[in-house]
Design brief:
With about 170 residues, the protein is mostly helical. It has seven helices and three strands; from the N terminus they run H-H-H-E-H-H-E-E-H-H. The protein has a domain of about 90 residues: Winged helix-like DNA-binding domain superfamily/Winged helix DNA-binding domain (Arc Repressor Mutant, subunit A, Orthogonal Bundle). The relative contact order is 0.09.
Length: about 170
């Protein structure tokens, strides 16, 4: 089975202006398609992809023994997809009882965020379904193809990041 070309899928009559334009648009289209099932899963739990990612970051710090939590600025640095307002994202998780804030004892300007027991339980519930979605969305590709795909994406991202474009 041959995959339909992006040009045909989006009804483009003229060629793309450049191969890099076609790759970029293809990447956006593919990301939208692949993220759909994840978006639906998270929505059933009143989460977004960003809030799920934040909970995973908080769990990682919790498991590393950082009991007081992690600064919001650090959460922003560790996000898979950067979001402009980590504070509002954390506010929502706190309101849902999935995270909490802890004030720094030595500097009142510093606030730490940590995951709560309900947050840990929710992630435990989601671990299996998320892993299964990863298998379903890209499991048709060989391990070699996935490795090559990862390498190409990392090369593309590294160049943008090193030029300050990210």
């Amino acid at each position: 089975m041959t995959a339909a070309k992006l040009k045909e899928q989006v009804g483009k009559r003229n060629p793309f202006e450049s191969a890099s334009q076609e790759v970029y648009l293809n990447l956006l289209r593919t990301a939208a398609v692949l993220s759909g099932p994840f978006h639906a899963l998270f929505k059933r739990h009143r989460l977004t992809e960003a809030s799920y990612n934040t909970l995973r970051i908080l769990r990682g710090h919790h498991l590393a023994g950082e009991t007081k939590g992690v600064r919001a600025s650090r959460i922003g640095e560790e996000m898979v997809v950067r979001v402009p307002d980590v504070t509002r994202l954390v506010d929502r998780l706190v309101d849902m009882g999935l995270a909490e804030r802890n004030a720094c004892e030595t500097d009142r300007r510093v606030v730490y965020v940590c995951i709560t027991k309900p947050g840990l339980r929710l992630l435990e519930q989601l671990d299996g379904p998320v892993l299964e979605l990863h298998r379903r969305t890209l499991g048709h590709m060989s391990p070699e193809s996935l490795e090559q795909f990862n390498t190409l994406l990392e090369i593309a991202r590294q160049e943008c990041e090193s030029n300050g474009q990210a």
